[in-house]
Every structure is written in structure tokens, then in C-alpha cells.
Specification:
- This protein is an alpha/beta fold and about 325 residues long.
- The chain has 2 domains: about 5-45 and about 145-319, 3-Layer(aba) Sandwich (Rossmann fold); about 50-140, Rossmann fold (3-Layer(aba) Sandwich), CATH 3.40.50.1100.
- It is about 50% helix and about 15% strand.
- It is built from 14 helices and 10 strands.
- The protein has a 6-stranded mixed sheet, sandwiched between helices. A 4-stranded parallel sheet has the order 5-4-3-6, sandwiched between helices.
- The longest helix is centred in the middle third of the chain and has 17 residues, at about 145-160.
- It is globular.
- The termini are far apart.
Length: about 325
Amino acid sequence: MTTLDEIKEAAERVRRIARVTPLVDVSNLAGRQLLLKCESLQPGGAFKIRGAYNMVAQLSADQRRRGVVTYSSGNHGQAMALAARELGAPAVVVMPTTAPEIKVDGARSFGAEVIFAGTTSTERKARAEEEAAERGLTMVPPFDHQWIIAGQGSLGLEILEQCADVATIVVPVGGGGLLAGVAAAVKQSRPSVRVIGVEPSGAAAMKASLDAGHAVTLPTTASIADGLMPVRPGDLTFAHARQFVDGVITVDDDEIVDAVMWLFTKAKIVAEPSGAATVAAALTNKVADDGPVVAIVSGGNISLEKLEELRKLSSAHAH
């Protein structure tokens, strides 16, 4: 398990590049005690810079000289590319053929070589492992690594500092790196604070795994939240979730779409679907209302075209 000391060291390390993002109180708009942790404002547009930088910064000079590789639906790839650029390492990112253009352009803008492989995390991972073996690159996995988890955990410490009376922290779940890190940080600092994961109902691999008592691989996943679709949680992230997390709930795509639009029109915050899942859970009263709730808005990498598409979807199911 990731220790509190490891998370505190990671927080020091990532301070060089990660912002202390604002905690925005939207209680009046939401009609309940709700604060938004805006990780969408990080360099690269998502929380992922915390874990990626924490890992690349700890590699040896030789590993950095040879370069790093990862597989990602987008945000982790961008974050690793940015971390590698800052630390002087060449970067290769393997992305799905379906990756949003905004995320592909983002990774390239930070100097990464982008390779496309398949549509599932399994296919991306296999290709990234091939590249690592052939080219002597070091793998920087998207979630299932102690250093990645510790880096994401720095976000948990930040929330505790910013909101002394927080009752519940709501965390989006893809592979589980953010959930594992935040839960480890929070439960080892202030065990009374509840940590709840949120997954799309069409990609609820962590919930299925916790219900089964072991990591489960889903046959397929489908969701509008492209960053929350791994078919299986990581072994390490699952172990952390099992030990530290109070529960995982699911939200439907319609609820996610409505949350993206609510954030944009009411809270004036730009979030991608993956980043709005936690807000969807809070707005649909799936999270207990017995004290301040902090919902992590994990990413804001969404194009104007996609936003318009979601606006049409949202108004279509409102009528």
C-alpha cells in the first residue's frame, strides 16, 4: 500500500509543475453542500500531471535519456509527454484509434511521438510493451504503479488542506489510480472522511471487482466518458480501493452529459465527460448529503464540437 510519507514526498516533487487548483463552492447553484476541485485547470488539462511527473522525476538519468512510453486514451499521455519534456526525456504515447483529436494534439504539442493501436486498453498496452522492449524505453503506466498512485494522492492532501470540514470526497474511476491515491491519502490522514468512487454504468469495472472480491475484466465497456473505460482495474489500484474506499457508485451517460452542461452553463467550468462524472453523482443525489461534498472535476479536455454535440444530446433528453 502507498504510505502517507510517499504521498507527501510526491506532493513536494510535483509542486514544481502541478498547480494548487481552486476549490469552488457551488452549493447555492446545486442546492446542496457541494465544492468542485478543478483539476481541469492543471497543465495538460487534467489531474494526470501529478502521477506522471512523480514517476518520470524518479527515473534514473539513463532511463530518462533513453525515453519513456505509455498507453493512454489521452490525458495520461498528455501528462507524461509534458513531464518528459520538462525532465528532458523523449516520449512515446500509444493511443486508441478513437482518441479525441484534442488529446492527440495535446500530446504532440508537448513533443511526444504518438502511435495509434486498436480501441481497447489491452491493445494499447500490448503495443506500448512492444515499443518499450524494442527501443529500450521505460514504461510509465497510466494508473497501476506505486509512484503514479502516490502522485495522484497529492490531490487528496490538497483537498484536506483546502476544506477542513469535508465529509465526502467523490472521485472519478477509470483504472483507479486517482481513487487509490486520494483514498490512501485521505484515510491515512483523516479516516472519518468518506471516499466514494464514481464510474459510468457502462464501464463499471471497479464496482464489479469490489462486488466480486477480486479484479474482474469486463467483456466490453461503453460510455461517453472516454477516460473512464478500462475493462479492468489495476491490481494495485484494486487493492487500494478494497482497503481504503467506502464505496463505488455508477452514473448513466445521460446524467454525465447533463453534468457537463450544468458545469458549463451554471458553474462556468469546462469539463470533459470523464471529468463531470462525480458532479453527475452529486447532482442526482447519489451521494449522502450530511456535510460538505467535494467532487473532483478531473479533466477539461473537450473540443467545442464535442461540447455542442453534448448540448444537443442534453436538450434532446430534457424534452
